[in-house]
């Protein structure tokens, strides 16, 4: 199943990611760039590693069987 983000993040398209401080929404960084690649292999291992780091769980409990994870690599053009 392809989600909306994946559908719009095709190779070569411009994208941006904004990350805000949870304690101060005015303290943030925005990364702008171009989609360089999309990976489907090895995504579950990366998600499980992050779940363990942040929650202590060995596996991501929010995983849906119908979802297929995708890692989108971005060629950074600008950091604001």
Strand content: 35-45%
- The total strand number stands at 3
Number of helices: 2
Tally of discrete structural domains: 1
Distance between the termini: 33 Å
- Rg over alpha carbons: 15 Å
Low-confidence runs (pLDDT<50, min 5 residues)? none
Average pLDDT for all residues? 82
Helix-strand category: alpha+beta
Taken in chain order, the helices and strands follow as HEEHE
Largest sheet: 3 strands, antiparallel
**Backbone shape:** globular
Strand arrangement, major sheet: 1-2-3
- The residue fraction in helices comes out at 10-25%
Layout: helices, strands, pairs:
Layout: H1 4-8, E1 14-21, E2 24-39, H2 43-55, E3 71-79
What does this structure look like?
By secondary structure, this protein is of the alpha+beta class. The chain has one domain (4-79). It is built from two helices and three strands. The chain has helices spanning 4-8, 43-55; strands at 14-21, 24-39, 71-79. The chain has a three-stranded antiparallel beta sheet with strand order 1-2-3, with no helix packed on it. The N and C termini lie far apart (33 Å). The model has no long low-confidence stretch (mean pLDDT 82).
In short:
The chain has 80 residues and is of the alpha+beta class. The protein is built from two helices and three strands, in the order H-E-E-H-E.
Q: What descriptive keywords fit this protein?
A:
80 residues; alpha+beta; three-stranded antiparallel beta sheet; 2 helices; 22% helix; globular
